[in-house]
Amino acid sequence: MRFRLLWVGRPKSEPHEAALCKKYESRIARMVKFEETALKPLAQQPSDCDREGERILQKVSDGEYLVVLDERGREMSSRQWADWLVTKQEESRDVTFVIGGAYGVSHAIRERANDMISLTRMTLPHGLARLLLVEQIYRGLCITVNHPYHHE
Predict the structure, then answer these.
(1) What is the DSSP secondary structure assignment for residue 75, as one 8-state letter?
(2) pLDDT higher than 90, residue 36
(3) What is the pTM of this model?
């Protein structure tokens, strides 16, 4: 079982975000398998979104639980998120989170997705969404093991 992040963006464009992501990713990796893959943006206009979607779907196997991060997805509290992570670990399925490009994700990705989750109803830059996601994965895992990182 592993958690994986596929995102469209340039990881080195914001060095401070990248450094913080690495910090949380290394903490996550002590608790579960975690991988991250950045895909170079292709979309220059909304119609290019399908090409990005094809590239993303090529990297997702049939058995993976695919989660699209989207402001229209369902929101969860930190405790609900932790419970969700535990459920996915108990199911022993690989979970892949997708953060789309500048024009979001394609219809094909939405059709393939098993779940759609929102970090916030606001639109975020991709690097910031990536940072929020890895911090929330770490926080959720800490909640599950009663680590003092999360205070209630």
Answers:
(1) -
(2) yes
(3) 0.93
